[in-house]
Amino acid sequence: MLTLYGYWRSSAAYRVRIALNLKGLAYEQVPVHLVKDGGQQHSAAYKALNPQELLPLLADEGHGGVKIAQSLAILEYLDEVFPETPLLPRDPLRRAQVRALALHIACDLHPLNNLRVLQYLTGELGVSDAAKDAWYQHWLHNGLAAVEAGLAPFEGGFSLGEQPGYLEACLVPQLYNARRFNCDLDAYPRILAMTARCETLQAFAQAAPEVQPDAV
Amino acid sequence: MLTLYGYWRSSAAYRVRIALNLKGLAYEQVPVHLVKDGGQQHSAAYKALNPQELLPLLADEGHGGVKIAQSLAILEYLDEVFPETPLLPRDPLRRAQVRALALHIACDLHPLNNLRVLQYLTGELGVSDAAKDAWYQHWLHNGLAAVEAGLAPFEGGFSLGEQPGYLEACLVPQLYNARRFNCDLDAYPRILAMTARCETLQAFAQAAPEVQPDAV
């Protein structure tokens, strides 16, 4: 039994939902509300499970109830323990290309525009809404431009040829966020095409934020 | 032949130097100055190699001259292609624990305190030096507290028992940065002890920023 601690709008949790669906793994969801009660991820109960106080967290009852933090650590774990329907290509060079793009999203784009960072900007730093929006757009476009260039070897297909995986699990949630913040995406035709291909697949449709049990 | 595009003070490049040294792999260094010329990582020549315009980048001439961006993608690649002296433990649960800690540093701590972000704070946002320092300390202590808790299973040793690897390659450069910014680290005895154990090893000493050819 797999249990995913997540939040419908957390794009890191969204990555893991996609990966679990691609592998056809059943899982239970435990919602952790990122805003209510000052952020339930900071509650003593959740902090005892995950000292990082971030989402997502995966508990694997089939393997001693181990709890794994960090979405990309979870994706790697799933690919190692449930190798059927791989998330990463087999060739080490291709794997490296995929990981480099996914990590660019996960390290250098997403964390800068995360809710807790935007809250720090408007709270502690007293930044205006306009300046906060400019910050968001700056890091988003900076990151997406690099991803667009990096997608050249995957044009017309998925990161595993016929199948999406690790890369798409990071890309689609990032695009969801970009659209939520009304970002102009015309400069990224490869990203838009890959995302559109993913959105026709059930694994992605069923991972979408709006259809999660805790969506409001 | 391996070539590392880096910068002596880039902590992401520092991670890769440690990993290469741990594996005993020879490599050439190409310095890319992060400040000179408005940041040489933004030059047309470098951008053609790495559209992410970030360091490090690894070129592997032995494998078709492939170029790999993102320090953690490089670490994974090295562990797959040069498996001797592994960077990650063998057990998937242990691997997941190690990756979750390394990713917490690489995704949720380091990018927020990166040079380009600090530059945006003081430049575009006109934030004072004191407020910038408070930002730095906020994300550093937030991240280190979680890492300190996560190190409990590794107390007294390394992430691979007798040997350091992936985790230490991320931890030691982060500590180097924290010391550069005069952060009080007394609250993190496990981090300090693990770092001290690493610092006695040649692989770490030879990767230190100050002994790199481009150090000034």
SSE map:
The structure is a homodimer of 216-residue chains.
Chain A: E1 2-6, H1 11-22, E2 27-31, H2 44-49, E3 57-60, E4 66-69, H3 71-81, H4 92-109, H5 115-122, H6 129-150, H7 166-180, H8 189-199, H9 202-205
Parallel strand pairs in A: 1-2
Antiparallel strand pairs in A: 1-3, 3-4
Helix pairs in contact in A: 1-3, 1-7, 4-6, 4-7, 7-8
The strand count of chain A comes to: 4
- CA radius of gyration of chain A is 17 Å
Separate helix tally of chain A: 9
Overall pLDDT confidence of chain A? 96
Looking at the structure, the CATH topology of the largest domain in chain A is: Glutathione S-transferase Yfyf (Class Pi), Chain A, domain 2
Question: Which oligomeric state applies?
Answer: homodimer
| Percent strand of chain A | 5-15%
Outline of the structure:
The structure is a homodimer. Chain A has about 220 residues and is α+β, with helices and mostly antiparallel strands.
Describe it for me?
The structure is a homodimer of 216-residue chains. Chain A has 2 domains: 2-85 and 204-211, 3-Layer(aba) Sandwich (Glutaredoxin); 92-201, Glutathione S-transferase Yfyf (Class Pi), Chain A, domain 2, CATH 1.20.1050.10. The first copy, chain A, has a 4-stranded mixed beta sheet with strand order 2-1-3-4, covered by helices on one side. In chain A, helix 1 (11-22) packs parallel to helix 3 (71-81), helix 1 (11-22) runs antiparallel to helix 7 and helix 7 packs across helix 8. In chain A, helix 1 links the parallel strand 1 (2-6) and strand 2. With 216 residues, the first copy, chain A, is of the alpha+beta class. Chain A has 9 helices and 4 strands, in the order E-H-E-H-E-E-H-H-H-H-H-H-H. The mean pLDDT of chain A is 96. At the A-B interface, strand 4, helix 3, helix 4, helix 5 and helix 6 of A face strand 4, helix 3, helix 4, helix 5 and helix 6 of B.
